[in-house]
Amino acid sequence: MHMKKIFTTVLAVFVALAVFAQPEIKMPPIPASRELHHETILNSLNAITKLKSKTDTLFPVTGNKVLDQSINKSIRLRVNNMRAQIELNNSLDDNGKFKWLRGVNEMLTAYMSAYRARVLSASMLPPLVKAYGDAMEVELAGGSIIDVITANEPEIDNILIENFALKNNPGIAAAQDVLVLKHIQRNPNDILKILTRYPDNRFADSLIIKEALRNQEKLYDYAASPTSALARRIRSVDHPLVKIISTLARSKTGRMYFPFLDNLYHGKITMDSITPLVKNDSSAGYYKLLVRTRIDYAERMHNGDTPMNARGLTDKLKAKAVELYINEINALHDVSNENIRFKKLEGLSPEELYYLAVLGEEEIYTSSFVKGVYPRIFQRMTVPRSDSLLYTVHNDYYKKFIKMCAAYNTLDNFLSRMSTETAEKLMRSFVDRLETATTLEDAVDVADSYASIYNKDIRKLIIGEVQTNLDESNRKNNRKGQLIYRLLNTIFLSMDSTKKIDMAAELGIDPVYVMPKTSLQDTSGRIIIQQFSYGDKDAVTYFSAFMNKFRNPGWKIKQNPKWVEISSTGKNTTPITIYANLPLDEKKELDIEAQDSLISYLEEHELEPKIVIHRGHSYYLNETIGRLPSSAKLVLLGSCGGYQKLNDILNICPTAQIISSKQVAAGVVNQSLIDEITGRLRLGKDLVWEDVWKSVQGKVGTNYKENFDDYIPPHKNLGAIFIMAYDNAWSKFDKADQTSMGRMRLR
Predict the structure, then answer these.
(1) Cα 678-683-684 angle, rounded to 5 deg
(2) All residues at 6 or more sequence positions from 296 whose CB lies less than 8 Å from its CB, including other chains
């Protein structure tokens, strides 16, 4: 028998025997005026017997017939004793006896309602009956029921507090406060949500202080209400942290001070010193203070401390990094004069530039990092050592920075700026303890980075550290570590052609070295391709080249005002149809309108694109991702730095193969890939990626070799492969293992 079931049964029997130990009280003659009330109680007892099944003669509290007979008998004895006590109590007049008979029946009917609603279980009936008897005894003696409420479960307390016969008990207010406290203890994450309904609860002040020390953001939100009773209660609490949060919550600019809450609370900074920076938050001063505070917090966290609202500080720092700096240098991506483009970065320290990079990872353009932020970090250091940089920021986000350096081909440069011994130690740390993280992000970063590392010694070090961690996880039987490091080990070893490892077979995922033609065909055998185009100034060039490639006898072009439909022709060829929206005026958002119109057409005609192509600059990529069809099996990201968006693609298309560039994309390379893919499919061939890559490499020539080298084929998108393999392996664990391991989110 399951342990919980055993416990419930033992508890029920224990309580029932305690009730049964009471001697039977002989029922006196019942006046005719109250006979109906007694019959109603007996009818309720009979109705409880048949709660589970109309054919039952016993209420199945435990499922064991012998035990249930004893429990049912004890319940009837206790209820009948209550009836007798009411009739024998000479201090009660007729109205008093009517009240208590009604109360007993109301307790029984309340149980039936709660049982049907699955609020109370069968095993809760004996303790409820006992608790009601105890409460009745206390009430008749003129005492408070608070001790009875304190001793029982909240579900029982609810019934007692709402009972007609107990509603005027002198302890009812205190009992209600205790009941609220019990609900909060069961739902500690809902303290303020529950107090919203009970702001006058006697425990409210201590609970508000508890929430202030645990969840400052949530308390701020509740305190900000100008009219709620709970906000008024929060403002009345005499505690320094609650007072600070209350003050900030009432201020129009409170959110600007809130990132510094921990230092404000501990007296390390004053609101007056922050105010001038808040008034001019678009200047560098506010951003610089955020960075200094984050570095301070990073040092404390490194030493085991936990600053309050560190997450809020980081969110504000990221927002300001993007708003003040990254958006501007990204917007000037077409400006060839770097002094003009990166003028906004003047005056920023190496540490301030570092946080621009790691917190702006998802927004920063390739050229903004490679030509702007990264070189300026070391140009502004007296001694341009990368280990000194990490030491200054207390290794905060160092794994993210390593991943970015790998993705943008600056890792070798970064590691060369420290001693070999330090570099090796850093890379070991990069790989270690991935199973202790709450998300998969670090493990995915390790996988992504390995594909971008060309230094054989560093690669050897990483795979050696992966295997060391795998051995350690096996020794400790750490299931999460075993899974993560086994997947990484298999993926990394498969990159060595001499190992002859079939990665897809080993990981139990779809093949990654090939995209079968059949996987791209719909039920009619046709392959549907959708291309997203944008109306930027480069569109005229790339879209014209795109169209010219299909102006030949092998293809037929049909055009309407918003998109083109390009279909393959000829016998013994695979039918292919490419739908590409026209790159209309971006300033009037006509390109987006054309995309939406095309999407509506495809949905209306039940056409599911299996290949999706993104054309245009990287700042348009989020628009494409937002419209990406989940049917896509192959995604070509023809924009700079598309490699940074793999996780976003996989959230929509979990098994999609992805082609992307780590750095600067090129229209010539994109078109060569489109030509190669459509040409092979038209001839009925599967897409074998090594063959595709060799062919395209020969076609792009030496002028675009550097650009093409930055494109990553599906079988080398190691982060994407890791995610697919992890999800596949996770789905095969039983629920007990999944619960014990704890599912790691992607982010």
Answers:
(1) 100
(2) 263, 307
Place of tokens 């230094």: 455
DSSP 8-state secondary structure symbol assigned to residue 268: S
Whole-angstrom Cα distance, residue 281 to residue 264?
Answer: 18
Q: What pLDDT is stored for residue 643 in this prediction?
A: 63
pLDDT of residue 487: 95
d(CA 84, CA 28): 7
Buried b (16+ CB within 10 A) or exposed e, 669-680: bbbbbbbbbbeb
Q: How many angstroms separate the CA atoms of 318 and 295, rounded?
A: 14
Mean pLDDT of the chain, nearest integer:
90
Q: Is the pTM higher than 0.85?
A: no
Enumerate the domain spans of the chain.
Answer: 3-186, 409-512+733-747, 516-716
Amino acid at 186: R
Separation between Cα atoms, residue 693 and residue 232, nearest integer Å: 67
DSSP conformational letter for 745: B
pLDDT at 590 (0 to 100): 92
φ/ψ of 227, rounded to 5, equals -125, -15
Higher per-residue confidence, 158 vs 651: 158
Match 């109590």 to its residue by tokens: 89
The whole-number average pLDDT for the span 594-600 is: 95
How far apart are the C-alpha atoms of 146 and 138, rounded to whole Å? 10
383 — pLDDT class (breaks 50, 70, 90): very high
Q: Which of 532, 539, 546 has its CA nearest to residue 674?
A: 546
DSSP secondary structure of 221-260: HHHT-SS-HHHHHHHH---HHHHHHHHHHHSTTHHHHGGG
Q: Is residue 611 within 8 Å of 677, Cβ to Cβ?
A: yes
Listing DSSP states for 294-323 in one string gives: HHHHHHHHHTT---TTHHHHHHHHHHHHII
Q: What is the DSSP string of 579-590?
A: EEE----TTTTH
Distance CA 221, CA 34 (A): 55
Tens of pLDDT, residues 202-225 = 999 999 999 999 999 999 999 999
Contacting residues for 325 by C-beta, under 8 A, at least 6 apart: 287, 344, 345, 348, 356, 360
The rounded distance, in Å, linking the Cα atoms of 244 and 420 is 49
Q: How confident is the model at residue 17 (pLDDT cuts 50, 70, 90)?
A: very low
Q: How many other C-beta atoms lie within 10 A of the C-beta of residue 430?
A: 20
**Dihedral sign from CA coordinates of 627, 633, 639, 641:** positive
Beta bridge partners of 52: none
In tens, the pLDDT along 627-671 reads: 999 999 999 987 766 666 777 888 898 889 998 876 666 788 889
The two three-digit tokens of residue 720, written as one number: 């994407």
Phi first, then psi: give them for residue 556, nearest 5 degrees. Answer: -125, 130
The backbone torsions φ and ψ at residue 515, rounded to the nearest 5 degrees and listed phi first, read: -115, 105
